[in-house]
Structure formats: C-alpha cells, structure tokens
Amino acid sequence: MINVCQNLFKFDDFIYVRSRSDICHDNEVDMTENGSTNGSDSGSPLTKEEVDAIHETWALVWSDKKNNGIEFFVKFFTHFPEAQDKFKDFKGLSIEEVRAHKKLRAHALSVFYAIKSYIDHLDDLETLTELIRKNARNHVDRKVGGKEVKWLVPPFVELLEEKTNGKVTELHKTAWTKVFDVIASISDEEIEKAK
Ligand code: HEM
C-alpha cells in the first residue's frame, strides 16, 4: 500500500512534498494496489483511487518535465517509428538526432502542458472533455486518431517505471490506460466528424 495522504512520500530515491489538499479529499484514503473503487458517483470513468494514482505519478513526471518530456518522445519514437514520421522536424532523423534536436524540448513541453491541463480537470468531466476535444480536433489533419493515441501508453508506462524505480502498480497502469482511452475515444469521434 502507498499512503497518498501524507505530506511527504517517497519512491525510493525520489522524495517530494505535496500539500494535503492536492492529494486528499474529504477522508483519508489509502491507495490500494488493485484499483477497487471507493464509490465515486461523479460519472468519471476513473475511480477515486485511480485519480489519486494518476496525481501521484504525474507529480513525478511534472517535477522534471523538460527532461521527462524528451525521454518520453524518445521512447515514443523508439516504440513507434511511424509516429516520428508525422513530425516534419524529426522525419528521417536517427533517434539520437531527435534527442539532440533543439525543437524536441518545445514539442515535448507542449504535449506535457496539454496533458497537465487534463490531469488538473479529472474532477470536471465537462471541461476535461472539451480540453481533449480541442486538442483532438487539432490532430485530425495529422491523422492522429484513437489508434495513434494508444501508442502513447507503452512509452508513458515505461517512463513511469523508470521514475518510480519499477514501483508502478497495476492500479497506476489501469488508471493511465483509462486516461489515454478517453483521449483515444474522443480523437476517434473527431476523426469521424471530419469525414
Ligand atoms: C495525449 C495525446 C496528445 C496530446 C495532448 C498532444 C498535444 C499536442 C500539442 C499541444 C501540440 C502542439 C499544438 C498543436 O500544433 O496542436 C501537438 C502537435 C503535434 N502532435 Fe500531438 N498530442 C497528442 C498525441 C499525438 C500523437 C499520438 C501524435 C502522432 C502519432 C501526435 C502528433 C503531433 C504532430 C505531428 C504535431 C505537430 C508538430 C509540429 O509542430 O510539427 N500527437 N500535439
């Protein structure tokens, strides 16, 4: 069990401080490893435990967003070279050339800031959906639909594995997969609308 309702918590060599209000709601909740619900009726596809799991892992990624963004894109293009071809700045470059490219940092940060806007609104489904839809619309001409969005899951989980020294649980994986599934499904809707 990882107690998420404490001011200080640690993933081995990574220690950071968060405010109680950021991670705790009305009552103290111990995050379990099995992803069971604690009875949320908000209409969200995520349980309260999954939302906590997202926040605690996102905090790790966000705390070093520039470097983690670069690592994420390198992993993304390594897993799915066809994704790299969609980026005009990176098409045809070796993975080391991409890693060193001055535009990679900006690309990666733009994507992470967009994901952060989703994570900040997990408790407000209407706003969350509109944020995702806006970005999905911007991706229609790039032919990025649900299938392509789901490509993001393996590199993201791999990044989390590294950031937590292998302490990513099934709960974390399920929670993040659900987030990317929601983004994927809205992306497919926007592709369909544009036909
Ligand atoms: C969580 C999912 C994603 C988010 C939040 C996201 C976010 C963004 C943002 C904020 C931008 C810059 C603003 C814009 O031009 O629209 C962007 C650009 C772009 N994205 Fe995504 N993206 C996602 C998934 C993907 C995927 C899966 C692909 C490809 C397989 C992709 C391909 C692109 C391309 C090609 C650009 C244009 C880059 C350029 O300026 O040349 N995106 N994305």
Question: What this model shows, in words?
Answer:
The chain is mainly alpha-helical and 195 residues long. The chain has one domain (49-193): Globin-like, CATH 1.10.490. The chain is built from ten helices and four strands; from the N terminus they run βββαβααααααααα. It is globular and about 45 Å long. The chain starts with a strand and ends with a helix. Residues 28-47 are annotated as: Disordered. Residues 45-192 form the Globin domain. Residues 33-45 have a biased composition (Polar residues). Belongs to the globin family.
Largest sheet: 2 strands, antiparallel
Q: Span between N and C termini?
A: 47 Å
The portion of residues assigned to helices is 55-70%
Number of beta-strand segments? 4
Ligand names: protoporphyrin IX containing FE
Q: Hey, roughly how much beta strand do the residues contain? A: 5-15%
Number of domains: 1
Element-level helix/strand string:
EEEHEHHHHHHHHH
Low-confidence stretches: 1-40
Task: Count the DSSP helices.
Answer: 10
Family: Belongs to the globin family.
Subunit structure: Monomer.
Protein name: Globin domain-containing protein
GO molecular function: heme binding; iron ion binding; oxidoreductase activity; oxygen binding; oxygen carrier activity
